């Protein structure tokens, strides 16, 4: 096979795939306002080798970074000269009996497929994806990067013609906060790290390294520790503000933990993945099907889980992904997300015990939002409080059943703007001696009892007060009722 591959530790400059020029305004960041950590400097990070060679020669020179499984895939599929999707790669791996573990990122446009030799293959889907396996295109295999494929998949989000930087200049223009919600987790990561890349930040992450390395403006010179020491001097005020906006956006969307939070999230896995579910040291093959007719991300023909030869199925409307979770170091479980009446979801957990899949428990919520802590499992359900957000519910295992632990206070945390003057109580069932919230004041909805009291905090002064509500209605001190949207601006009605 004489498939040509251009060896470049690549990125998005000099892109020949015909990507259209587009203005983009997105980015998120990490809680500590730093990009992905790296521990050692790569030699000749910015070296560009523009030698043409066959796929076999390409892989042969890279066998330190690329495993045997990747080598076989590249040779068999003709990638990167030939477009290659997840369906093709899985079919080949299964035929060759090469085991893998595939995981989605949280916004599910990216898949990382880790082969049994430790090498990784990365797939991306475009904005029009229906989340079918054929929609995920192979972009990175080992340290070989398909820049043309990258440009094609994300052509609506990046300006990659010539050697230009991406879209809006995030060093000189403040980002539009609302526009950040238009971009996926992968796109946000690229835009966030673009700010650091402009200042020579090096990246251990092979995908980010590939994305930036062939741009002539990218001059990597600082490792993580050095960059952290120089960050305040290197970055402009606009860049620092953009990072703050990005960090908050990613936290709001669940892509990043709030500072101080300690929890783990279930991970959506690719059907056909291998994992040791019962802790006996032997990996089982996990397969998942969720119907053959899709509308958006919901499938309507039931679902089927198979672990080795054991099978369970159901007829419920379910989301398109199977999740895997380890509950506080105990047995690994598989989670299915169901669509139920109203907007709330339902999670069904399955365990694999003695060679059989068994239903373990079920609770309200969505698998992707579930937080696993030492205390128990937290999920989110729509609250009656102004009918404008989702409350965090705690479930704990008691006598073999998952039961909710009722609380007196449910946290929220979103900011809203007062549209009217709002007198407040000093406490629940207290007197009308709390601070007066003025029109246009920005307040934080701290939370409430999920019955009739909500706690508000004035953002500037930090003063705390309470108000009465009934469903979506705000009850004024004189008993007059007002609709929630007439009282606060910026309510997230959809949770």
Describe the structure.
This protein is of the alpha+beta class and 495 residues long. It folds into three domains: 4-69 and 144-252, no CATH class; 267-382, Lipocalin (Beta Barrel), CATH 2.40.128; 383-495, no CATH class. Helix content is 16%, strand content 31%. The chain has eight helices and 30 strands. The strands form six sheets. Strands 23, 24, 25, 26, 27, 28, 29 and 30 form an eight-stranded antiparallel β-sheet that branches. A hairpin with a 4-residue loop joins β4 and β5 (120-124). α2 (68-77) crosses α3 and α5 (185-197) packs antiparallel against α8 (237-252).
Q: What attributes characterize this protein structure?
A:
alpha+beta, 3 domains, seven-stranded antiparallel sheet, Lipocalin, eight-stranded antiparallel sheet, 8 helices, 495 residues, 30 strands
Number of domains: 3
Assembly state: single chain
What is the alpha-carbon Rg in Å?
A: 25 Å
Low-pLDDT stretches are 1-64, 159-164
The description of the largest β-sheet is: 8 strands, antiparallel
- Say how many strands there are: 30
Give the overall pLDDT as a whole number: 79
Helix-residue proportion: 10-25%
By secondary-structure content and strand pairing, the structural class works out as alpha+beta
Task: Give a brief rundown of this model.
This protein has 495 residues and is α+β, with helices and mostly antiparallel strands. The chain has helices at 55-60, 68-77, 86-95, 147-153, 185-197, 206-213, 224-234, 237-252, and strands at 4-8, 48-54, 100-104, 110-115, 120-124, 137-141, 144-145, 267-269, 273-275, 284-289, 294-295, 298-299, 303-307, 310-314, 318-326, 332-339, 345-353, 356-364, 371-372, 377-382, 390-398, 401-405, 410-411, 415-418, 442-448, 453-458, 464-470, 473-475, 481-483, 488-489.
């Amino acid at each position: 096979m004489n498939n040509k591959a251009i060896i470049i530790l690549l990125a998005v400059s000099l892109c020949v795939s015909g990507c259209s020029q587009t203005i983009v305004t997105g980015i998120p960041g990490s809680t500590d306002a730093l990009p992905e950590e790296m521990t050692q400097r790569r030699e000749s990070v910015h070296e560009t080798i523009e030698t043409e060679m066959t796929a076999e020669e390409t892989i042969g020179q890279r066998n330190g970074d690329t495993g045997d499984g990747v080598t076989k895939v590249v040779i068999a599929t003709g990638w990167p000269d030939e477009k290659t999707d997840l369906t093709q790669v899985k079919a080949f791996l299964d035929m060759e009996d090469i085991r893998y573990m595939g995981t989605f990122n949280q916004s599910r446009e990216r898949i990382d497929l880790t082969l049994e030799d430790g090498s990784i293959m990365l797939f991306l889907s475009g904005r029009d994806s229906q989340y079918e396996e054929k929609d995920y295109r192979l972009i990175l295999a080992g340290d070989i990067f398909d820049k043309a494929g990258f440009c094609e998949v994300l052509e609506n989000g990046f300006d990659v013609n010539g050697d230009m930087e991406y879209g809006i200049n995030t060093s000189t223009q403040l980002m539009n906060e609302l526009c950040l919600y238009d971009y996926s987790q992968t796109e946000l990561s690229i835009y966030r790290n673009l700010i650091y890349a402009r200042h020579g930040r090096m990246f251990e992450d092979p995908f980010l390294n590939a994305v930036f390395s062939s741009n002539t403006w990218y001059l990597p010179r600082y490792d993580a520790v050095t960059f952290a020491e120089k960050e305040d001097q290197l970055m402009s005020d606009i860049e620092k503000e953009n990072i703050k906006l990005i960090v908050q956006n990613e936290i709001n969307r669940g892509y990043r933990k709030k500072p101080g939070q300690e929890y783990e999230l279930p991970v959506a896995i690719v059907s056909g993945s291998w994992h040791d579910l019962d802790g006996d040291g032997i990996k089982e093959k996990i397969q998942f099907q969720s119907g053959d007719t899709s509308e958006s991300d919901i499938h309507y023909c039931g679902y089927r889980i198979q672990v080795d030869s054991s099978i369970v199925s159901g007829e419920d409307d379910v989301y398109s992904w199977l999740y895997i979770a380890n509950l506080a170091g105990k047995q690994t479980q598989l989670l299915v997300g169901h669509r139920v009446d109203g907007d709330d979801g339902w999670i069904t957990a399955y365990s694999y015990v003695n060679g059989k899949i068994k239903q373990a428990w079920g609770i309200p919520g969505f698998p992707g939002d579930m937080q696993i802590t030492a205390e128990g499992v937290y999920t989110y359900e729509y609250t009656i409080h102004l009918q404008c957000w989702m409350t965090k519910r705690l479930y704990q295992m008691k006598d073999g059943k998952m039961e909710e632990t009722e609380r007196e206070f449910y946290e929220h945390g979103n900011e809203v703007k007062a549209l009217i003057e709002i007198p407040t109580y000093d406490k629940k069932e207290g007197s009308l001696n709390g601070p007066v919230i003025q029109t246009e004041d920005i307040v934080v909805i701290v939370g409430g009892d999920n019955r009739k009291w909500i706690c508000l905090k004035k953002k500037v002064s930090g003063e705390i007060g309470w108000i009465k509500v009934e469903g979506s209605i705000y009850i004024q001190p004189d008993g007059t009722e007002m609709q929630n949207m007439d009282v606060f601006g910026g309510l997230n009605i959809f949770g």
